Amino acid sequence: MRTILFTATLALASVGSAGATPAADARSAATAFRLEGPFELHSRVYPGTVRRYWVYVPPHYDRTKPPNLLLFQDGQRATNPTGSLRVPAVLDALIRDGTLPPTLGVFVTPGHRAATYPTDLGMQNPDHRVEEYDSLSDDYARMTLDELLPAVARRWRFADDPRRRAIGGTSSGAIASWTVAWRHPEAFGNVLSFIGSYTSIGLRLGSDGAPVALGGDLYPGLIRKSAIRPIRVFFQDGSADLDNEHGNWFLANQQMVKALAWANAHAEEQHRPGPRYDVRYQWTAGGHSDADGGALLPEALRWLWRDQPAAR
Q1: Other Cβ atoms closer than 10 A to 101
Q2: Dist CA 81 CA 83 (whole Å)
Q3: C-beta separation of 178 from 195 below 8 A
Q4: How many Cα atoms within 13 Å fall on the side-chain side of residue 106?
Q5: Could you read off the pLDDT of 26-72 as tens digits, one per residue?
Q6: Most distant CA pair in the chain: distance in Å?
Q7: Are residues 86 and 80 in contact, defined by beta-carbon separation less than 8 angstroms?
Q8: Cα distances (Å, whole numbers) of residue 231 to 43, 183, 189, 210, 269
Q9: C-alpha to C-alpha distance for 243 and 199, rounded to whole angstroms
Q10: In contact, 78 and 90? CB cutoff 8 Å
Q11: Could you read off the pLDDT of 82-131 as tens digits, one per residue?
């Protein structure tokens, strides 16, 4: 484990409704921020796998005042200082700018089948990613809530209130994040979903052709036929996203938004008390890339926690 002090120059922009294009009031911030790790975590939920995680510690961290929590998937890419996302740098700039509450960032890779995490894997996907991220089971949530977060909490405190916790990712990391919040809204009340894989990647067929495991393309139907969860979610996808044997990504993301809107409207028509989904979406012209999500990340984070006191 090591403490990394990064110096990052980051442009923070207001993003217009037309897409992920920096507005004229973009500002630059150059600061050193604190990123601890990588740490290794061996999972009991997924025996024989190991994953890495990093922790971004916000300025003036105080254990007696637990900060918000952002948990981001595919941590190797989310923390890449030359990548499209650079999530720790975005968090740090927004917190120092006084537009985001103090937030602890946790960035975790998928599991890899090995005794130790390979040092030469770089930005590649670990080999247990599909089994963890694209499954609709509760396994990934159990690993997150029962193993990863307790490991982090042994050293850093963070908020218990689900309204002060966000979980996010890109592609299959986005659907994994949605699954955790969908199954456990008492743990996470906010979701960041960039180019989400709400498709049939997780679908497995038996020898008779019948499904033995379901895929994420089931979610729009589940949303329409299930009780509303108290979830706030930001979606981004591009019109040039993937279209392959698993499904059409752009259509799948639009189906998610439509299902959430229908669930809200139906609850209103029935005069049902209780929560409503809080949804924002941004459709861009991009493909299956982190680029547009990275450009929108500052605005998405500000929107998720818009009703909470920012850092002062």
Answers
A1: 19
A2: 6
A3: no
A4: 29
A5: 334 456 789 999 999 999 999 999 999 999 999 999 999 999 999 99
A6: 61
A7: yes
A8: 27, 11, 5, 32, 20
A9: 10
A10: no
A11: 999 999 999 999 999 999 999 999 999 999 999 999 999 889 999 899 99
